[in-house]
Amino acid sequence: MTEGGRFRTVEILILAGVAIAFVDESVRKALPGAPILVTGVKDLLFLLAGFLLLFHERTVPRRYATYFLPWVLVTFASAVWVFTRFHSVVLLGATLRTYCFVPLLFAVGYHLGSDEASRRRVIRIFLVGGIAAIAVAFAQEYGREALPLFLSARV
């Protein structure tokens, strides 16, 4: 994969993650048996983009990631302790995602902060998503019975 191809992959991952964030609640209603799945997919997209940026792109300085090393080690030890105590894979994953993978999310934020074109694309998604969310909220408030189930059901 070329540098440009990897950069395009990162863009797609970030934009897909942001788009999923806006339809998250509706997808949860459409898939009522798997609410964690939606968040997991969204998080996986952002973490994969961060991994590509941190370990393969030259746009994110790796030296900043080293500042997170003590935090990652302490939180990883905590995640392992929680797992050995409660034997919950979901709890382990949540702890790793929330605390240990911070450098990957930092890489995504750094990328968006330093790349004007990427930032503009994300802002467009936020504007369209925000307007759509407001429209759906009004429709749910005033015409819930006319909406499809995945938009009218309450979580």
Q: Which stretches are poorly predicted, pLDDT < 50 over at least 5 residues?
A: none
**Helix count, DSSP H or I runs of 4 or more residues:** 8
The average pLDDT value, as a whole number, equals: 82
Q: Between the first and last Cα atoms, what is the distance in angstroms?
A: 41 Å
- List the secondary-structure elements in sequence, H or E: HHHHHHHH
| Helix proportion range | over 70%
Bin the strand percentage: under 5%
> How would the global form be characterised?
flat
Determine Rg (CA atoms, Å). Answer: 18 Å
Major beta-sheet overview: none
The counted number of beta strands is: 0
Structural class label:
mainly alpha
Please write out the topology.
Elements lengths: L2 H28 L4 H22 L5 H5 L2 H18 L2 H12 L1 H13 L1 H28 L5 H4 L3
Helix pairs in contact: 1-2, 1-7, 2-6, 4-5, 6-7
